[in-house]
Automatic annotation (TrEMBL):
The chain crosses the membrane at residues 88-114, 126-148, 154-177. Keywords: Membrane, Transmembrane, Transmembrane helix. This is DUF1700 domain-containing protein. The keyword Transmembrane helix applies. It comes from Nesterenkonia sandarakina. It comes from the Bacteria.
Amino acid sequence: MNDAERLIADYRERLTQATSDLPAGHRAELLSDIDTHLSEAVSQAPDEASVLQMLDDLGTPESIADAAREEAGVLPRGRTDGSLFYDVLSVLVLSLGGFVVPVVGWIAGVIMIWNGPRWTMTDRWAGTLAWPAAIAPPFAFLFATHAIPQFSPAPAWILLTGLFSIVLLVVPMVHLLRVAARRRSPDDRHPVKP
């Protein structure tokens, strides 16, 4: 095996390892496409310098794998690590922070969720919008009682609005915690005791 072939073999091995978490069909298609490209490129310029340039132009196996993950909707490699403490704290700050320190607490929770290691874009948006959605009904009632003098809601409606607000807040938070628990690595779920 000459130096150019060795470089190609090393690149293929790195790409195979870097894409190990992709869905099987997506991974097979990607590896096949890259193998075809590498074979064509090597047949046109088989010397080591040309192969190095071609691999440099192609990009690192890790960058190719990252792009493929994004296209496939797979969480990036290394984003499954993190602690249970961070997950729970993020959800608590997101759900309760806005009540403790109005708006600023909610913003802190949003930042934590968006930087969290396990949530997808959809999960992040659900968490972001949960607190505003939960406080909207009580504020609508408050606004209506002050803006419309004859508006006087029955106590049952006030109770139902409060319960609805709690559901709007709790359901997305439970979802975020469940998603995080499913995506936590086995090592995080069962830490080894010293």
